[in-house]
Specification:
The chain is α+β, with helices and mostly antiparallel strands and 148 residues long. Helix content is 22%, strand content 24%. The protein contains 3 helices and 5 strands; from the N terminus they run E-E-H-H-H-E-E-E.
Length: 148
């Protein structure tokens, strides 16, 4: 067994296990930009912050964000496909999973359910995700519809 060299102020670390735990708090600006009485804007923290980030990624179109053309999804383009092309919802599921995995590192997709109404060119997606470094799972529901 190899001897490890530690600094003298560390003490005898060979007999004790070293463990480090870091509680990470996620914080974002509330995108409603509502003002507090103090004049500052509200912040979203932890779960609300990650949910807002997931929605932001999914509702942003590709090439819509300046200087970051890969950010976002093609979900709006998929809604404009013809009615006959809506037979399979795997394209929407894979687009959602790929976008969250690429652009929202705080969330890991657990499952995605999509209900498509091809005649009205709309889809309702329920995304269940786990926040990284926690065992908690949360779900958000998005209604993706074409505006005329």
């Amino acid at each position: 067994m190899a001897n490890r060299a530690y600094a003298t102020e560390d003490g005898n670390l060979n007999t004790k296990s070293v463990s480090v735990a870091v509680n990470k708090t996620y914080t974002d600006i509330d995108l409603s930009f509502a003002r507090r009485p103090s004049g500052d804007v509200f912040k979203k923290t932890d779960v609300a912050s990650v949910k807002q980030g997931v929605k932001n990624v999914l509702l942003t179109r590709v090439f819509e964000k300046p200087f970051n053309p890969d950010f976002g999804t093609r979900l709006n383009n998929i809604l404009f496909n013809l009615d006959t092309e809506f037979d399979d919802d795997d394209e929407i599921k894979s687009e959602i999973s790929k976008a969250i995995a690429t652009h929202e590192p705080r969330a890991r997709v657990v499952s995605t359910k999509v209900a498509i109404n091809g005649e009205r060119h709309e889809a309702r997606a329920t995304i269940t995700f786990q926040i990284v470094n926690t065992a908690q799972t949360f779900a958000i529901e998005l209604n993706l519809a074409r505006l005329r």
